[in-house]
Amino acid sequence: MNLKFGTGGLRAAMGPGPDKLNLKTVQEATLGVAAYARSLKEEPAAAIAYDSRNHSEEFAQEAARVLALKGCRVYLYPRMTPTPTLSFAVRYLKCDVGICVTASHNPKEYNGYKVYGSDGCQVTSEEAEAIQACMEGVDSREAEDDLPLEYFVETGQITYIEDKVLKAFLASVSKKRTRKTLSSGLKVVYTPLHGTGLSCVTSILKYVGLKDLQIVKEQARPNGDFPTCPYPNPEEPKALELGFEWCQKTEADLLLATDPDSDRVGAAARRNGVMERLNGNQVGVLMLDYLLKSRQEAGTLPERPVVIKTIVTTSMADRIAEHYGAEVINTLTGFKYIGEQIGKLEQNKEAERFVFGFEESCGYLIGSYVRDKDAVGAAMLLCEMADAYKAQGKTLWDALEELYEIYGRYETTLKNYEFQGEDARKRMSLIRKGLAEKPGMKMQGSRVLRYVDYREGIDGLPKSDVLKLWTKNGAEIVIRPSGTEPKIKVYVERKV
């Protein structure tokens, strides 16, 4: 198998061959995970979930079968569910590892294979390297056995996860409300983008009292071909086009969209009467300020509250957190690093200090009940927040303008440059060479004053293929190759 672990585990286009995701590469990956789990415990347990993509159910069932074949106790969701429910199940069922078959927001050609540790967090770099080593030592013939999935279900080696686990997840989400009721008559349109979010998101929104909820019917049913949105990413304006049409028809105040595995949520709100998308940073700072302010007013804000975000996420969050006396922990890109920091707080018996975690790519977490981004909880908080502001005669855009007046206006942009094969890594090497050999080189049209290379392990973070630059015009720029796609990502922020 030629596939390697990246930011979110294995991710590749589906098809035949060792560099694609298919039944054989799933078998090989699972043999590696089984070997790793057996190195931790003689009789390990694993939880498995999957999303709405083509072949996701097949891959998940085969992973369950191979794990059972290698002596693991397996808990398998009987139907597609959001990724955060896998993180929850790992801890709830006291499992040693977890697997979620998903390619998140990638196009329909892709699928993926995320691995979680016993803490419900995506495996860290060290754990990923250990699993990778186990994968490289397996013989795929070990998975060739006539015993079908049903045999292991009948013997009890594989157990389907009961509905009570999903209910416990939703109950944990609901406990993170800061207000008991919604009172403004908020109108919301929601689209699951043909993914897994419909049941959980609508359940939690109805539970918290949202009365006027419209579902984008054309995108409600799970469909791995994503016929109405070829790139089912809530960050992409095109993915929200049908949602905007529904908002126009229903005069909605808020549009919510979750990606196929429902761990990311995008939002749009009315601005001067017209629906306009908020980017991930804008949603994040709104949620952060609302959470800290609401909990402070309610007397539930912990002493020394902690906010965790990635180094490519807006520094406006640092200013807001400082205002409320919250500590900010910055991590490398990838929610597994945010989950890792929550785990460290828990080890020190300080998990209650965690208030909010987010990354600019529409990933948010409002509590430590899971260790991955959660669009279900984020959707709930977005509705609560929009309702509170509507009761004051404000939209989310109005609230954002008020934050800009207090903390300054931060402009953030993301540019993606696509490459093939290892070209992204090679291009990163050329950028480094240019910086080293040409002091004062220009980036985004302005002279680079200084830069740091995270391959050297900056600020106590793990070594990573990331560069950060500061330019004469006041911009902060972070450059990194994507861990899930053949791209270089360039994040630019400037306070204006």
What does it look like?
It is a single chain. Helices cover 36% and strands 23% of the residues. By secondary structure, the protein is of the alpha/beta class. α1 packs across α2 (56-69) and α9 runs parallel beside α10 (316-323). It is globular, with a radius of gyration of 22 Å. The protein starts with 9 loop residues before the first strand and ends with a strand. The mean pLDDT is 93.
Keyphrases for this structure?
496 residues; alpha/beta; six-stranded antiparallel beta sheet; 14 helices; 21 strands; globular
Question: Which spans of ≥5 residues are poorly predicted at pLDDT below 50?
Answer: none
The multimeric state of the shown protein is single chain
> Which radius of gyration do the C-alpha atoms yield?
22 Å
* Strand line-up across the major sheet: 1-5-4-2-3-6
Structural class: alpha/beta
Overall residue-averaged pLDDT value: 93
| Tally of alpha and pi helices | 14
Strand content: 15-25%
The largest sheet, given as strand count, sense and whether it forms a barrel, is: 6 strands, mixed
What is the overall shape? globular
Give the end-to-end Cα distance, rounded to a whole number of Å.
48 Å
Task: List how many beta strands DSSP finds.
Answer: 21
Helix content: 25-40%
